[in-house]
Amino acid sequence: MKTYYHGTVSLYLPSIEKDGLHVVGSNRYRAFGLDPIFHLPTRKMPLRDGVYVTDKKEWAIKFAQYKAVWLQALPGIVAMGERDDDQSFGLLKIGKSKPIRTDPILLTLELPEDIARSLKVDREAGESIGAMWYPGTIAPRYIASIEPVPAKPLYQTATMLL
């Protein structure tokens, strides 16, 4: 077994505990690389149909915090990360969705070798965050622990009416 982490939010926990980690159409989003000074989009990340995991706990925690911020935001470009952090990225929130209050959580996963070998490295996301994706469902039995993580404040660089 190999240890990986997945950052998500409490809103999705009942479904994750029942059905495992999988991508549902409504959970897809478009990520962007952000300019480190102005925090405006510089490059579009590919849209993946897969569950993201990492072997770097600190990045899974950051993503859980960012996902909670994104769900609380109005539609537009939501910049997340420390303002002086060159690893900041943004998520494009589209549609007419209303802000949702939810808490960030960290899942620790113990994956068997066959699933670990099937993970695909996402080089677009940057090698330093250890982003990998699995093109299928990760069953609830592989969740070793669920922990709350501290929330981050929301800030948006641009709000667009889409």
Describe the structure.
The protein is α+β, with helices and mostly antiparallel strands and 162 residues long. It has a single domain, classed as ADP-ribosylation fold (Alpha-Beta Barrel). 18% of the residues lie in helices and 33% in strands. The chain has helices spanning 13-19, 57-72, 113-118; strands at residues 2-9, 30-34, 41-44, 51-54, 76-80, 89-93, 104-111, 120-121, 131-134, 143-148, 158-159. It is globular, with a radius of gyration of 15 Å. Mean pLDDT is 76; it is low at 26-30, 34-40, 82-87 and 156-162.
Write down the overall geometry. Answer: globular
Uncertain parts: 26-30, 34-40, 82-87, 156-162
Order of helices and strands: EHEEEHEEEHEEEE
CATH class: Alpha Beta
Mean pLDDT: 76
Task: Give the helix level as a range of percent.
Answer: 10-25%
Share in β-strands: 25-35%
Query: Got a strand count?
Result: 11
Q: What's the alpha carbon Rg, rounded to whole Å?
A: 15 Å
Topology:
Elements lengths: L1 E8 L3 H7 L10 E5 L6 E4 L6 E4 L2 H16 L3 E5 L8 E5 L10 E8 L1 H6 L1 E2 L9 E4 L8 E6 L9 E2 L3
Antiparallel strand pairs: 1-7, 2-3, 2-6, 4-9, 5-6, 5-11, 7-10, 8-9
Brief account:
With 162 residues, the protein is α+β, with helices and mostly antiparallel strands. Helices cover 18% and strands 33% of the residues. It has three helices and eleven strands; from the N terminus they run βαβββαβββαββββ.
Features:
alpha+beta; 11 strands; globular; 162 residues; five-stranded antiparallel sheet; ADP-ribosylation fold; disordered C terminus; 18% helix; 3 helices; three-stranded antiparallel sheet
